[in-house]
Design brief:
Number of domains: 3
Shape: elongated
Strand order of the largest sheet: 2-1-3
Helix content: 55-70%
Radius of gyration: 30 Å
Strand content: under 5%
Order of helices and strands: HHHEEHEHHHHHHHHHHH
Mean pLDDT: 75
Low-confidence stretches: 8-15, 131-144
């Protein structure tokens, strides 16, 4: 009998339509389409294993699970959590989201900035309401506004948190979307923003930032080449060949530098043995200059 009553109570609970508050639903980053598809597939196959959490009947965790269950007519459990205010519920939602793996560093930074604003507003409202003597000796509100604490909350360095703050205020929305998805890095976007590109065509900005991102990925791969690798010069020669082919302006500068090195080496080699042919000397000097230039490129990459 007890089992039947429990099952009946569950059916009543899951048939009840839950309430959705936009401030709760939109404060956290939405799932990417592929993530949502995987979640839907999992729930359809295995059911909704995690309870949908609510406050006063409003969903605070499980908006996607609820939508999927409604779509497919599936049962779900609910669990009510008690908070004093809506602001407390919002802070809980943010803290809960910060602990999840599918959130990028930029998204975490944005969440922490939202949390800071919520707590500041809450602090001001509480100070305005308190008129009793306890307000004078009451404990201070928890510190939440220093960059170090925000960085710790987001799980990033204080320098990264500073960049996130600037990007959140000044970066075009298209760049923010790329940051949220993890398509571009925070450091790359920040460096580009410092060049004052906000007024330029947004499509061109994204293309250029993407190009920088690919270049950084290539450099990170080149940095893996050991300095004592016997084929390192051949590897860097391929890189140089590609760069000369794809960037004529850069190639012109490199060619001029190589010519200058060859000229200097030719002057220094004027005392070579008379039996050494001029043609051979020039070829060997040119080869040495190319390797010197390649080695300089390689070492500059290692120093990044």
């Amino acid at each position: 009998m007890d089992n039947k009553e429990t099952e009946m109570e569950r059916e009543i609970a899951t048939s009840k339509e839950l309430k959705i508050k936009e401030s709760f639903r939109t404060i956290i980053p939405p799932l990417a389409p592929e993530e949502y598809a995987l979640l839907e597939k999992s729930i359809v196959l295995d059911g909704c294993r995690d309870a949908i959490l609510t406050w006063k009947g409003f969903i605070i965790d499980g908006h996607n699970r609820y939508a999927i269950c409604q779509k497919h007519g599936l049962n779900y459990d609910t669990e009510e959590i008690d908070f004093d205010t809506e602001q407390d519920a919002l802070v809980w939602i943010i803290n809960n989201q910060l602990g999840r793996r599918n959130v990028t560093d930029y998204q975490k930074g944005e969440l922490v900035l939202k949390k800071k604003d919520i707590l500041l507003k809450k602090g001001k409202s509480q100070q305005g309401r308190r008129t009793d003597i306890l307000s004078i000796v009451d404990k201070k509100l928890p510190s939440h506004s220093t960059r170090e604490e925000m960085a710790k909350d987001a799980g990033v360095s204080s320098g990264t948190m500073a960049r996130i703050e600037i990007l959140a205020k000044k970066a075009p929305e298209e760049i923010k979307e790329q940051l949220r998805s993890g398509t571009i890095k925070i450091g790359t976007a920040y460096k580009y923003l410092k060049k004052g590109v906000a007024s330029r065509p947004k499509k061109k900005i994204l293309q250029e930032i993407k190009g920088i991102e690919y270049a950084e990925m290539a450099i990170s791969d080149l940095e893996k080449i050991p300095k004592d690798d016997p084929l390192v010069d051949q590897a860097l020669d391929k890189v140089l060949e590609w760069m000369l082919k794809n960037n004529p302006h850069w190639a012109t500068g490199v060619a001029a530098k190589i010519r200058r090195i060859i000229h200097e080496n030719l002057l220094a080699g004027s005392k070579l043995d008379a039996k050494t042919s001029t043609t051979k000397m020039k070829r060997e000097t040119k080869d040495a200059a190319l390797k010197k230039n390649l080695r300089g490129i390689q070492e500059s990459l290692w120093d990044k």
